[in-house]
Request: fold
Amino acid sequence: MKALREAAEKLLREKRVSLVIGYEDRKGRPAFFAAKPEDCGRLAYDASCRQNLAAYLGKPEIRARLPVAVVAPPAVLRSIVVLTAESQLPPGQVLALAVDGDSFLGTFDAAGVAELLRAKYSTLAPEPALLERVQGLLQKSPAERAAFWEAEFSKCTRCYACRAACPGCYCSRCIVEKNAPQWISTAALGHGNYTWSVMRAFHQSGRCTLCGACEAACPQGLPLMLLNAVLDREALEEFGSRPGYDPEAKPLIGSWSADDDHSYMR
Amino acid sequence: MKTIETRRLPDLAQALSAAGYCVVAPIEEGGVVRFREWAPGLAIAPGAVPANSSKDFLFPRSEVVARFALEPGGFSPAPVERSAVKTVVLCARPCDAAALTALDAVFNWDYRDGAYNARRQAMTVVSLACSKADEHCFCTSVGGAPDGVAGADAILRPADGGQLLVLDELTEKGRALAQAAAGTLSEGPAALDAPAVLPRRFDSEAVGRWLAANFESPFWKEAALACLGCGACAYACPVCHCFDLQDETDHAECRRLRNWDSCGFGLFTLHASGHNPRPDQSARWRQRVMHKFSIYPQKFKTLACTGCGRCSRLCQAGMAIAATCERIEALGR
Ligand code: SF4
Ligand code: SF4
Reply:
C-alpha cells in the first residue's frame, strides 16, 4: 500500500492531477478523493474493494476537475480502455494507479493501460465461481429459468444503483427515463422490471468488463452478474469481442458491418 | 407479563394470519433480509435490520392512483380500487415505527392522502426492541432509542437472553392484536434483556442550526463528491416519501402511477423548461440532508430521519448521513 500512496502523493505534488480517486483505508473501503498530497495516507486497496471507480469518470463534478488519477484493479483498467475506445475520456486526462491483490503495478496513461492489460492480463477470464453460477442456471429448463428471473426481478425497486455503479452507464439521459415515447414502464413491477434489467445488461454486451460493481451495489441482491456473464460469453463466441483490451476497437453494440452475420433476418 | 418464545414467532404469525391479518415480517431470502408478506413455513429473522423499511406497506414503490379508459374519440376516468388490507408489521424496528409520525405529517399536510391513510388505519405495528446495534445505527442521535415505543402499537422486548419475547400493548390496535394472538402467548415472569447501548453521535438541533445558515457553503461540493446519484438511500429510508407521477398508456387504458422518486437522481425536480434548481449532485445531496434535518423539523416539528442507518449500510459509495451530521456539527462549533 505504501507504493500506491507514494505514487498518488507524487501525482498530486507534481500537479499532474488535481484529484486521486481511490478507496479509503477504513471499513467497507468507500470511495475516497484525495485532493492534497497529505490525503494520500488514507488510501488503501484490497480484494474487498467492490466499487468500480471508473464510474466517477462520467460524473460532471469529476470531469470539471480533470486531470484525475484512478486506483484501478484489472477490471477497472479494462473499463478505462472501454471508455477510451468509446471516446469518453479526454486524451491524457486520466491516469490509472494500477493495483492487483497486494501489489501496486505503477502509474499508466490510457495507452499504457492497454499495454499492461495485453502483457499481463490477456487471458483474463470470468471468475470460476461466476461461471459455475451461470452453468447452474443454464441447466434449468426455459420455464424454470423464466420463473427464476420473474422472482428475482420482482424484488427490483428501480433504484438504479446498478446503473450508477457502472462506468459503462454514462448516458446523460437513460432510455428508461425517456417518456416521449416511453420505452420501458416506470412502475417497479414485473414487466417493467424485467425489461429494465435485461435492457441494462444488453446495453453492456461487448462493453461489460465483469467488474461486478452493479451486482454488489444492488440493495435487493439481484444476481445481475448472471445476465452480464451470459452476454459476455455471447459477445466473445459470436463476435470475438473482448471489451477493454483495445482502445481502438469499435464498441460491439455501437458498430455495424456488412460482414456481420445477418442470418437472423428473414 | 405476556410472553412468547422467540423461536415461536412463526406461531404468532400463524395465529395473526388466522385472525385475518396480512402478516409482514423480516424474512431472509438469498442472503438479504427483507420485510415481506409471511406465509406458513417461512422463518422470521428478527435480529436483522431488513434492507427495506416497513414504509413499503404504506407507500408502495409503485401504485396506480388514477385510471382512464380509452374510448374511440376520447377517454373517461375509470375507478381505482382502493384496497387496504388489515396488516400487521411484526418485528418492525423501533426506528421503523418512529418513522410513522414523520410520514403521517406529510401525508396529511395540505392534502389528506387517501391511499396512505387507508393503509395506515389498517396497519398495526409491533416493533421489536433492539438488543444490539451496528456501526450504522444512530437512533439515539435523532430522538429515538433501541427500545423506543414511538409509533408502535405494541412492542416485543427480548428477555431471558433472547429466548423469550415480552409483549407490551401500547394502543387499542395493539390490544386487539394481543387478543387475536392470545392462544400463542403465555403469562409469566421474564427477565428483560438490556436494550442496545448506543452513544449519541451528534446533536441534531446543532446540525439543524448550521444547515439553516449554510445553504451556500462550499462544504456541499466536497461532501457530495462520492455520491453517484442513485435511489438506494431514499428507497431504503423509512421516512423518504418523494414520488413521481407518470402516465402510462396501452391500447385500452391510461394508468397514472405514483412511483417512488429520489433526490439523488439527476431528473429530480428537472423542470420541463430544462432548468433544474438542483443542477448537480452536491445540490441534490444538500437537499437530502436539509430536508431531513432542517426543513422537516421547521415544518413538522419532527426530523425526517430515525437513525435506522439503512442508507449508509446500502450505499455502494460509502455516503453516510450520520458521519455528514457529525462533520456539520463540528463546522458549527
Ligand atoms: S440496483 Fe437492483 S433494485 Fe436497483 S434498479 Fe438495479 S436491479 Fe433494481
Ligand atoms: S455491467 Fe459489467 S462493467 Fe458495468 S458494473 Fe456491471 S459488471 Fe461492471
Remarks:
- The interface with chain B takes residues 24, 27-33, 50-51, 55-56, 59-62, 155, 157-161, 163-165, 172, 177, 179, 182, 185-189, 213, 216-217, 219-221, 223 of chain A (CB under 8 Å).
